[in-house]
Amino acid sequence: MDVKERQAYPIQTVQMVKEKEDKSKQKKNKSVKKEKRRVGRPKGSKNKKSENPTLSPELLRIQPVLQAFLRILKGVLAVQYLVMEGHFGNYPSVWMVLQTGLHFVSKLRSDAALYQPFTGKYCGRGAHPKYGDKVDVHKMKKKYLKSDQKEDGIRTQLYQASLLNKGFASSINVVVILKTNLSTHKQAHIILFSTDWKLSYEKLLDYYTLRFQIEFNFPDAQQYGGLDDFMNVKETTVTHAANLSFFRVNFSFVLLQRYRENNPEFRVLDLKSHYRGGRYASETIKLLPQKPDGIL
Length: 296
Prior knowledge:
By secondary structure, the chain is of the alpha+beta class. The protein has seven helices and eight strands; from the N terminus they run ααβαβββββββαααα. Helix 5 packs across helix 6 (235-260). It is elongated.
C-alpha cells in the first residue's frame, strides 16, 4: 500500500488450502474433565517465563508466506507496518508480526477489556500490580481526547492512549473512535491498536482505513485481469494464473498514469478503448493499397 498515492499494489498472491480439522481429537479434548484444584499456588511450583504463544493453523499458513514476501522486498522496498483485519486482532498475530521486525496495526473486538497501567503505591507484598482501572470506552478521560467533531447529527470523538489488555504481553497504542447520534444519543465505537507507541492517532486510523483499498484490486483483477476466466485446476497453474491477473492490475495502473495527468477520471475502460482503437487504426492502414505518410 502506497500511503501517498492511496493505492494498493498486489505483489504476491499465494493459494492457501485449509486442512480438515481432526474431529476425533476435538471430541477427546471435550471428554476430558478438568480436575478441581485447590485455591492458591500449588506446592513446589516455580516462577516460569512467559512462553511464546501457540499460533493457530491459520497463522502457521500465513507465517512462511510473510517471511518469504519480506525476503523478496529486502533491499528493494522498506516497509514498516503490517495491517490486518480485526479477525487477527490478538496477541499471537502480534507476536508473529513482531518477529519479522514490522509493527502491527489491527482492530480489537468491541468488547475487549482495556486497562490503564497501575500507578498506585506498592503495598510491599506479592508481585507488583500491572493493571489499573478498567477503561470504559464510552466514558474515557478528557486527557485522551484528540479530536471532537460534529457533522450531520453525528458526533465523532477520537481518543488515544497507551493501554493494557490481559491477552497481550505489553501495552498497546489504542485509538478509540466513538460515534454518538445527537438525536437518539445512541453510541457505537471501534477500537484500533498498534504495537508502535509513537504512531499518531491520525496515521493509525489512516493506515487501517487504507487497508480497504486492497479490496478494489480484486474486482479489477476479475473484470480486467482474467481472474474469473482461467480454467486451471492444479496448484502451480492456479498460482501462475492468479498472479498474472493481479500483475495486469499493476501494469494497467502504470499505463494509466500518463493519461491521468491531464484527465484524472481516466479509467481502465478508457485505456482499453484507447489501445483497441489504436489497433483497429493500425490494421486498417495495413489494408490500404499504398501506405500513407507517417503524419497520418
